Amino acid sequence: MQTTFPQLLLQHASQRPTAAAMREKEYGIWQTLTWADLAVMVEQLAGGLHQAGLRQGDHMIVVGANRPRLYATMLAVQSLGGIPVPLYQDAAAAECVFPIVNAEVRFAFAEDQEQVDKLLEVQESAPQLAHIYYDDPRGLRNYDAPGLRSMDQLQEDGAAFAAAHPAFFREAVAATRSTDVGAMFFTSGTTGNPKGVVHTHDSLLNRARAGADFDHLSSAEEVLAYMPVAWIGQNIFSYSQWLSCGYVVNCPESAATATIDLKEIGPTYYFAPPRVFEGLLTSVMIRMEDASALKRKMFEACMAVAKRVGPNLMDGKSVGLVDRALYALGNVLVYGPLRNNLGFSRVRVAYTAGEAIGPDLFSFYRSIGINLKQLYGSTETAVFVCLQPDHEARADTVGVPCAGVEIKVADNGEILVKSPGLLREYYKNPEATAEVLTADGWYHTSDAGFIDAHGHLKIIDRVKDVGRVKGGAFDGALFAPKYVENKLKFFPQIKEVVAYGDGRDRVCVLINIDFDAVGNWAERRNLPYAGYTDLAQKPEVYQLIKDCVAQVNADLSQDTLLAGSQVSRFLVLHKELDADDGELTRTNKVRRGFIADKYQVLIDALYQGKTQQFIETQVKFEDGRTGSVSATLRIDDAKTFAPVKAAA
Fold first, then answer.
1. Model confidence over 605-616: pLDDT tens digits?
2. Which residues, other chains included, contact 108 with Cβ-Cβ below 8 Å and sequence gap of 6+?
3. Which domains does the chain have, with CATH numbers?
């Protein structure tokens, strides 16, 4: 059925007016917004925006955390035939200039004072940005910039307009078409300016429906919306599928309370990138380190059973009576309380995407009874390309093609996709569009992989990142940096890893420690430290990380294909990799090439056999100031293992 987002809103408001559409936690209390309430809010905002001059085809940026009025604004823009363009709320002002200028944006929704300040700064480079509407008035009382108004005022104007023109809103919504542009998402711009990915209502809703049908989603689901709306993953789960299925979207009070709010809501459908699952596991491990010896032993014993039995139970395989009884006991003592503590006691389906998840991390969650699965997709494919069926979730694949998707593998190993969810184009960038979309409708993903014997897609790495070791003990061996990085990041002490080795005689890595986890570890050993830089260079910390690297190398040596990816040398960086410093994208993906240029002196030192190297690095603080961090970094050799030969 051909439909649009605003049409679905009115459908829910008509059929289920008193059902909860959204909840927002404010001042510690959950406030509920019904579908009827939401429809009225959208009608009023649409009327206000129409009066302000927003017309069909106009772009309006929305920047802020997940809030009912932000979602209502997107719906209001779409009701008028306009195009919402979500931007990352933690992006610096300079990062917002290109999208606003490129899309000729005249209207903006800003959540609070921080975002207003950013947009007012942007106006110097983008004077066409004439209308800025803010949601939270705190700190903005004395602002008198031209075109700056509150959402309350906009809504009041719209209410008056709706009263005078009662048929306008429904007529405008009825005029929207599924083939109209529904939203635009800007890529992270790792290799140049960001690209505006243009999606229609149909491409987004088609994929939302495909995902919902695959996992039998209904209006009974509860979802927590806490990731940036500018990330298409969050947008699909808490906007496209929300309107498609009619379930409840819950907005946490703030990023700081998201973990607490997760426990209070107890979502049934959950989505997060691997970094979030890594962080949750790290918090668990920190707490267990602080537990009594008896509790630690009980946890370790139960987790040993879970690791052996849990995945088989999740996959519907037969398990021995004794193992089933031991697992049931572990469920009472450890797994059940742990799921409850994480906020996952009601989760029916949990997905991770955005980048590959470490196999050990993946297995941990499934072993304690959480139906964690992987999916494969991107901004350009409206997320849903491959999904893992229940009982077929594996750490080394990303599932089977979902409804409407065709996949083929090019001669160079690149995955090509044909799907109803493909982008229409890159906005004002026909050259880039032609590079990724073939004339017969195939999309170049830039990912290398293959379809296995069970019909599941297996992703190795980015095509441009997969390489070969040249020279040394592993000459000619396959090198897959992301695979190595993910195995190391399973350890709670390691937060981020950047691996190098293509065309070199060995693999070397730069490592970020997890400051909370390693700090807790150091405090329990009475190891004093004066901040991240000092802690990272402690000999004891290096030995801790060295043991982690050795374990990963031992695992890699068992894999005949990737044994050559073992880490030969490593160092612990003196600062955390940060999106504000350009080292990560806004979705926290490593910008490998940028880091290679920025830390060239460290990479050279690793490969030249040095044992230490001085470096000074410029950093940007949260308040916008810049400074520098310097240190003499230690460089260590790692223990490597001879590849295990396959049995004849």
1. 999 999 999 999
2. 60, 61, 62, 63, 100, 119, 129, 131, 132, 133
3. 5-272 (3.40.50.12780), 273-370 (no CATH), 467-637 (3.30.300.30)
